[in-house]
Specification:
Strand content of chain A: under 5%
Strand content of chain B: under 5%
Largest sheet of chain A: none
Largest interface: A-B, 54 and 52 residues
Order of helices and strands of chain A: HHHHHH
Radius of gyration of chain B: 15 Å
Structural class of chain B: mainly alpha
Number of strands of chain A: 0
Helix content of chain B: over 70%
Shape of chain A: elongated
Shape of chain B: flat
Distance between the termini of chain A: 66 Å
Radius of gyration of chain A: 22 Å
Helix content of chain A: over 70%
Oligomer: heterodimer
C-alpha cells in the first residue's frame, strides 16, 4: 500500500515535469531557453517515472530494462541538446534580432546580442578581455 | 483505486504537455524550435508508454519505450546535423 502510494506520487511528479516542459516550450521567448527547459523531462521526468514503475512492478527483468532506458536517456539527452544548441547559436550569430520584440527585458541579453558582442570583440582583436576593466578605479 | 486516480491525473498532465508542445511544433518560428518541440513530444510519448505499463501491470510495452527513446536521439541529432543554416 505504501509502496503503491510512493509509486503513484513519483509517476505524477514525472508527468508534472513533462507538463512544465510543455508550458516552457510554449511560453519562453527564445530558442535557447526553450532548449534549456525541454531537456528537463528527458532526464528528470523519465527518471522519476522509471522509479515509480520499478517500485510498482518490481521484478528483476523489468528493473533491468528500466535501468537501460534511464542510462540511454542520460547518455543521449545532453548530446542531442548540445547539437541543437550549437545550431541555434550559429543561427543567432547570423541573425541579429530575437524573434519577439515585445518582451523587452527578455530580449535585452538574448543569445543574438551575446553572439553579436562576441563577434564584434573578435573582429576588433580585443579578445575575450572585459572592456569594463578600464573604467575600474585602481585598488 | 490509487492506480486509477494516478493514471487519470498523469494522463491529464501528459495530455496538456503534449498539447502545448504541439502548439509550439505548429507555430515555431525556426526549424530548431520545431525540433525541440518534437523532442519534448517524444519524451512525453515515452512517459505515456511507461504510464500504460504501470496501469496494466505488464512490462511488455517497455520495449517500445527503449526504441522510442533511441529514435528520439537519432531524430534530434540528425535534424541538428542536416538542417540548413538559413532561418525560417
Amino acid at each position: 500500500m505504501t509502496t503503491d502510494l510512493i509509486a503513484s506520487v513519483l509517476i505524477i511528479l514525472g508527468a508534472l515535469m513533462s507538463l512544465l516542459a510543455g508550458i516552457a516550450v510554449l511560453r519562453f521567448p527564445d530558442t535557447m531557453s526553450r532548449i534549456h527547459a525541454a531537456t528537463k523531462p528527458q532526464v528528470l521526468g523519465i527518471m522519476l517515472l522509471m522509479l515509480g514503475l520499478g517500485l510498482r512492478l518490481g521484478s528483476l527483468g523489468v528493473i533491468g530494462m528500466l535501468v537501460l532506458i534511464v542510462i540511454l536517456q542520460f547518455v543521449t539527452a545532453p548530446v542531442s541538446a548540445h547539437l541543437t544548441v550549437r545550431v541555434a547559436f550559429r543561427n543567432a550569430r547570423s541573425e541579429p534580432e530575437p524573434e519577439e520584440r515585445g518582451s523587452k527585458s527578455a530580449a535585452d541579453d538574448g543569445p543574438a546580442q551575446l553572439a553579436q558582442r562576441l563577434s564584434d570583440e573578435s573582429r576588433t582583436g580585443a579578445g575575450p578581455s572585459l572592456s569594463g576593466d578600464a573604467e575600474q578605479p585602481d585598488r | 483505486m490509487t492506480m486509477t486516480v494516478t493514471v487519470l491525473i498523469a494522463g491529464i498532465l501528459f495530455g496538456l504537455g503534449a498539447l502545448f508542445a504541439s502548439i509550439r511544433l505548429l507555430r515555431g518560428p525556426t526549424q530548431i524550435d520545431r525540433a525541440v518541440a518534437l523532442d519534448v513530444l517524444l519524451a512525453i510519448v515515452v512517459g505515456v508508454i511507461v504510464l500504460m505499463a504501470a496501469a496494466t501491470d505488464s512490462s511488455i510495452t517497455l520495449v517500445i519505450a527503449v526504441v522510442v527513446s533511441l529514435l528520439g536521439f537519432l531524430g534530434s541529432a540528425s535534424l541538428a546535423k542536416l538542417l540548413p543554416r538559413d532561418r525560417q
